[in-house]
Amino acid sequence: MKIEFETDINGYQEARQFKLLIDSILKHENLNPSLNSLASSLQEQLKEFLSNPDFADFSEPDSKEHYSGSHDEAVASGVVKLFRSLFGPSSREIELSKQRKELIARAEHAEISAFDALAETAEIALERDQLKEKLKQFEAETPKPG
Fold this sequence. Notes:
The protein has four helices and no strands. By secondary structure, the chain is mainly α. α1 (about 10-25) packs antiparallel against α2 and α1 (about 10-25) packs across α3 (about 70-85). The protein starts with 8 loop residues before the first helix and ends in a 5-residue tail after the last helix.
């Protein structure tokens, strides 16, 4: 498995949080050998990414106070990301995605209907103007009684 992060401060922070997660997974003694191998591979990729010279200006926080959230929140977020990358989206996320697609389709249909109605209104206005012009011509051609 190959992981990639953006080469900016956000990517750096995500990689650091993910490394914390992998490090905590590797501390367990009863780890499945294939999971241990995967975690070790990810740990090496993360070390390589974090050693990038572009990140020399980013200081590594020494305490948990530097994190935007608590350590537990970072680990929980990392666990969710790990499971999502390994197993794909949850059934709830799939359902929400379907609902979003349906809403987008309805919005597009409403937009198309609105433009169709606008075009039809413009055509009717044009026909009205043409009929008014013809009426004026007929009135001008018709002799007035008297």
